[in-house]
Structures are given as C-alpha cells and as structure tokens.
Amino acid sequence: LTHAVEHLFNLKFAAKELNRNSKKCDKEEKAEKAKIKKAIQKGNMEVARIHAENAIRQKNQAINFLRMSARVDAVAARVQTAVTMGKVTKSMAGVVKSMDATLKSMNLEKISALMDKFEHQFETLDVQTQQMEDTMSNTTTLTTPQNQVDMLLQEMADEAGLDLNMELPQGQTGSVGASVASAEQDELSQRLARLRDQV
Fold first, then answer.
1. Are 172 and 188 in contact (CB under 8 A)?
2. Per-residue pLDDT of the chain (199 residues; tens, 9 = 90+)
3. What is the helix (H) or strand (E) element at residue 144, kind and residue range?
4. Fewer C-beta within 10 Å: the chain N or C terminus?
C-alpha cells in the first residue's frame, strides 16, 4: 500500500510537470512569433517561415503536454480510488514498476503507452479518455501544415503593420486569412485557459 501511495504522488507530480512543460512551450511560441515579426521587417521571408514553423510546432506541443497532463491526472484519481477502496491489484503493481523512469522522461509517447496500461487495469475506460487519445494522435505529428504557417506569417505581418510580399492562395486576401487565423488563435487560447483552470 505504501508503494501505491508513493506511485500516486509520482503520478500527480508528473501531471504538474507536464503542465509546466506546456507553459514552457507557450513561452517558446511567443518568442518565435516575435522573431517572425523581426524577420518580416527585415524582408527575410525564408527566416520568417522557419520561425513560423517553429511557433506552430511549439503551439501543438503545448496542447499535447496539456492534454497528457489532464490524462495523467485522471489516472491518478482512479489510482487514488483503488488505494482508498483497497483494490490495488497485483497486475496494477506490475504496471507501476517502470513508471518512475517513464514519467521522468517527459516523453509523451512513452507516457501515453504507460497510461494505456494503467487504464487497462480499470474495467471501464471513460469516453473522455478515448476522445483525448484520438485528438492527441491527430496532433502529435511533427509536420507543420503550410496553410497554418502562411496564416501565421500573415497575422504577424498585420500586427507589425507591414505588407507581406507573399503569394497567397487564390481567392484569399491577406486580411481574411489573418482574421480567420487570429479568431482561431483566440478561441484556442480561451479553451486552453479553461482547460488549465480545470487541471
């Protein structure tokens, strides 16, 4: 039982660390956006594009860390219930053996696999966890969609009050692209803020 309590503490600590990593990625994203503006002001579009790709990658990482933090938190709550009810099974004890090293690695794929094993120990997998996994698998890709990059470049140029000499897709004016991008950005920021408050 003492082991289970110790593992419970480690799970809660990992959830906090994942949350902290999410905030770090948020900061990195902001730093990359500032670099985009500078590059655009100097007329260096190639460099601006690289920073835009980095910014989007950081944004996706921030979301992934936040989702995983919520997932680990949910597993911790279940483990706590199992401890309280004295239902820590032998198979669950087996799962936690490699847990500490995995959690410390902050490797999302490894932590995800570990959470899979944990969740397997609980009879009912709630729908929310499944939805989280589906969304995670959609956003863990490291490639950055070029339309997102273009929209971010346009948004940064607009904020800097500059004209972007870039070929935009036909039928899409810069201001429309930018307003769509910033609207999406605002909505996402609000949703993330709400998620953070819940965690």
1. no
2. 566 677 788 888 889 999 999 999 999 999 999 999 999 999 999 999 999 999 999 999 999 999 999 999 988 888 787 777 666 655 565 566 667 778 888 888 888 888 887 777 664 434 444 555 555 555 555 566 778 888 888 888 887 777 665 544 444 444 444 455 556 566 666 766 777 766 5
3. none
4. N
Nearest to 10 by CA among 75, 85, 87, 65: 75
Name the residue ranges covered by the structural domains of the chain.
1-106
List the one residue out of 184, 112, 175, 106 whose CA is nearest residue 145: 184
Lookup result for tokens 């948004």? 155
- Residue that has been written with the tokens 């971010």 in this structure: 152
| Rounded (10°) angle between helices 45-84 and 174-198 | 20
pTM for the whole thing? Answer: 0.60
**H or E element: which one contains 122?**
none
How far apart CA 38 and CA 32 sit, in angstroms, is 10
Residue the block writes with tokens 């959690």 = 103
Task: Identify whether the C-beta of residue 23 lies closer than 8 Å to the C-beta of residue 65.
Answer: no
What CA–CA distance (Å, rounded) separates 35 from 199?
31
Q: What share of the chain is helix, strand, coil (3-state, %, to 5)?
A: 80, 0, 20
Residues recorded for the chain = 199
